[in-house]
Amino acid sequence: MLLKKLLESAGYSSHAARENMDIRGIASDSREVKRGELFVAINGLHHDAASYVDEAIARGAVFAVAERPVRGIPSLVVEDARLALARLFDAWYGHPARGMKLIGVTGTNGKTSVSTMLYSILTYAGRRCGMIGTVKTLCRGKSLCFENSDRLANMTTPDPSELYRLLLEMRHMGAEYVIMEVTSHALALSKVEPLFFHRAIFTNLTPDHLDLHGDMESYFLEKKKLFSRCEQAVISCFGAYGQRLAEELECGVRLVGEEQVCNVQKRGEKGVSFMLTEEGVDLLLPVPGDFSVENGALAAVTAHSLGVGVDVIKEALAHFSGVPGRMERITGDRDDIHVFLDYAHTPDALQKLLTTVRGFRSKGNQILLLFGCGGDRDRSKRREMGRIASRLADLSIITSDNSRSEDPQDIISDILKGVDKEKPYIVIEDRREAIAYAVRTARAGDILLLAGKGHEEYEIVGNERRPFSERALVASCLAQRERTRGHEG
After folding, report:
1. DSSP secondary structure code for residue 377 in this structure
2. Gyration radius from the chain CA atoms
3. Residue range 60-70: average pLDDT?
4. Could you write out the DSSP letters of every residue in 154-204?
5. How far apart are the first and last CA of the chain?
6. Distance between CA 232 and CA 251 in Å, rounded?
7. Is residue 332 very low, low, confident or very high in pLDDT (cuts 50, 70, 90)?
8. Are the C-beta atoms of residues 133 and 111 closer than 8 Å to each other?
9. Per-residue pLDDT reduced to its tens digit, 344-359
10. For the segment 288-330, what is each residue's pLDDT rounded down to a tens digit?
11. CB atoms within 10 A of CB 7
12. Per-residue DSSP letters for 111-147?
């Protein structure tokens, strides 16, 4: 693509561009620049990326975009290089979202569940859909892949280099709608700034990612950015931040709260039912938990706002099979204990998980909770998660969970600051050993919750991303438990 055309399409002046300069690609990592490419110098937390321009030039870069003047190559100075990167990739791929209706989902917890429910409803209604999120990225039933710039990251919203390519692929596949989980990181880093959302959904806001944002006010303001570029918002106002957001927005707003949701019935492991007052429909959702009411209501209200009939919504949710790693039941050959995987890795999510399970456990049966906290992430939540575990679980098994560069014992020590030492708990640093211990010692009828990893099939230790499947490990441990019981019998 001609540089002049690329810059103009991205909304930048092309006075620095030679009329006939051809650009073969865009890169923001100087180590990956190829000959003939444009290099965007991104400032990191510890390094000024302009210092890598020389390496980019040596590898064949022919033009640079940076936040300060650079030498040795034609360049354009911009105020925000991350924003420029998103705009440039959007332009490079021909503004791929144009012609499709984007639905952004943001909030601390529930993004994946709401996205998956909405995808299921729209697909059931015959709409052609794509979905980009934590657990999977797919379009019209076909799984799509993308690569993160950080191979150790579990990135919910892809980097611009992949995001706009995926949108183009979905457009080619005939997608009418694309449902996208939009994180506070993505908003803070301007990944989605070129996009306009037909609908934007807010789930909730509870403490998380404060290592990046610093405080809850800053976290809220990052989330709020999504709603400055949408046609209509669908907001859960069960919490204070949702109520505040609804009051501050200038776009159209659909509310989901106590006035809009009534007749809530908990059906144990079989799920929940509730009524949407404005739509006048009773819904059954076969996923247990109070959070399922909120998530299901958000998906249903959004679908209805997009023209899907209430009968279709009702049928789609009644057949919803759940989300991998979200209250996902793991089964063995002959279960005598009940094992669930869940991605709960914040205090709010952990409390909701435990409260849900306490609501349907049988009298006399215990709840065993196995959990840890991620390394190099928000440390402020560790003590609180320990406190919640002590209060709501009958036995807390504290272990590792993607320790990254931190010493697992340091993370566990932070968790233990909130643990009630008068309540049953045990520390087993190795997660594999901790799971084996939990399955081995649980009594018939007990409920074992494996929290934190959910859908993840890996464990990050240092700079290594090691294969780690809790599903496979639990199956093996259940088989060993059955063999042991057989010998004892």
Report:
1. S
2. 24
3. 93
4. --SS--HHHHHHHHHHHHHTT-SEEEEE--HHHHHTTTTTT--EEEEEE--
5. 73
6. 6
7. low
8. yes
9. 999 988 999 999 899 8
10. 888 899 999 999 999 999 999 999 999 999 999 888 888 888 8
11. 24
12. HHHHHHHHHHHHHHTT--EEEESSS--EETTEE----
Distance CA(175)–CA(128), nearest Å, equals 5
CA distances from 357 to 37, 169, 247, 361 (A): 54, 40, 34, 6
Q: What distance in Å separates the CA atoms of residue 444 and residue 457, rounded to the nearest whole number? A: 27
Q: For residue range 121-136, list pLDDT tens digits in order.
A: 999 999 999 999 888 8
Q: What does the DSSP 8-state code read for residue 369?
A: E
* DSSP run (H or E) holding 233: strand 230-236
> Do 62 and 34 meet the contact criterion of CB atoms below 8 Å apart?
no
- Which residue pairs, CB below 8 angstroms and at least 24 apart, start in 16-23? 16/74, 16/75, 16/76, 17/63, 17/74, 17/76, 18/74, 21/62, 21/63, 21/74, 23/62, 23/63
Token pair listed for 418: 């909130």
Condensed to tens digits (0 to 9), the pLDDT of residues 66-96 reads 999 999 999 999 999 999 999 999 999 999 9
Residue 152 pLDDT: 44
Please compute the mean of the pLDDT values over residues 20-33 and round it to a whole number.
Answer: 93
Residue 141, classified by CB atoms within 10 Å of its CB into exposed (0-12), middle (13-18) or buried (19+), is exposed
Alpha helix (H) ranges present in 231-362? 240-248, 290-305, 310-318, 347-360
* pTM, two decimal places: 0.85
DSSP state of 150: S
Strand partners, 77: 66
CA angle (200 as vertex; 198, 204 as ends), nearest 5 = 170
- Nearest of 468, 451, 265 to residue 367 by alpha carbon: 451
